[in-house]
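Ticket #4471: structure output looks truncated?

Reporter: J.K.
Steps to reproduce: submitted the chain below (383 residues) through the standard prediction queue, then opened the result file.
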Amino acid sequence: MARALYIHWPFCLAKCPYCDFNSHVRDRVDVDAWQAALLADLRHEAGVAGSEPLHSIFFGGGTPSLMPPTLVEALLGEAEKLWGFSPEIEITLEANPSSVEAANFADLATAGVNRVSLGLQSLDDSALRFLGRLHDADEGLKALETAQCVFNRVSFDLIYALPGQTPRDWQEQLSRALGFGTGHLSLYQLTIEPGTRFATDVRRGGFIPLGDDPAADLFDVTRELTDAAGLPSYEISNHARPGEESRHNLTYWRYEDYAGIGPGAHGRRSGMATLRHKKPENWLDAVLRNGHGLKEERALGLPEQASEALLMGLRLREGVDVQKLSSRFAIDADALINRGELTHYASIGLTWDDGGRIGVTPAGMPLLDALLPELVADELVSA
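Returned output as attached by the reporter:
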């Protein structure tokens, strides 16, 4: 049963050279039509995703902080009517740190949002220009100040391991970031994904990515400073004071069911993978035609579900309980993981095994992408 809800708002404030939502930039949006369609999509999903009270709602996508607060309030009201809310529900909204969006924060809080995730990305203007961001550091910090005055819980993200970045550079920036006192930070290493503007720039010699060893040094700085500040990592890139972990993201990493509505939204429910139409017009047409925006519902086999659960759960500091996964997916525990590889990597300090719960050590986390296919049983990886 879905205990979390993801609502995708596809529209962006402006074109960005590093964003894949450029086709979703709009001068104006018919809010009434979108509200009716999102409510219809919501009702359909509630009808098939169970009735357990929601513990998390996340508004993400293009620029959800520019959603009309009346629309946010209508969606939250309908979700509470359909599912019910747990007493301490977390309602997060993703926001860019622009002055235009920050001006919307107070009304969004009144509508019911109680947590904001702010895309600062850097505290340095030259880095922000490199990342293709539209805000500068001063505007971002003003938005952060506004958010901290308005919302109960605030998180922001930074990107590090930029070309030429040194441990001292990152130490100074991260120390400053920790000084703002938020209870949650998302700290991501820059990755060069195929098909992106960054990949094109690298191919053309525009910049040289930071090497693996220097990036690992910055990862060590990250762990050292966040641990000392009382925001230890609970996932490879996410750090929080105890009790302020993102409940919504934990839903994903613990492989629990979640409902997804709106263009391009993914979901998982009762062994099904769901996907909505990505293009806004196609999604709207589908809702008008069918009463929902679903493009695909695909039944996942138990080996595929088990593989996803392991690949997600091993990102967490808490690791995964192999026996529980074995019972959940009716697969023998020894058929879930490569015991020999687990033992080998444990012997060199990269993994751990504690009474059936397994995980990756802090030393192993920088190598996570390489470790995962080694640890997960070959039969599951190919499922």
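Triage note (M.O.): checked the attachment and the full token line is present. Confidence is low (pLDDT under 50) at residues 15-25.
Status: closed, working as intended.
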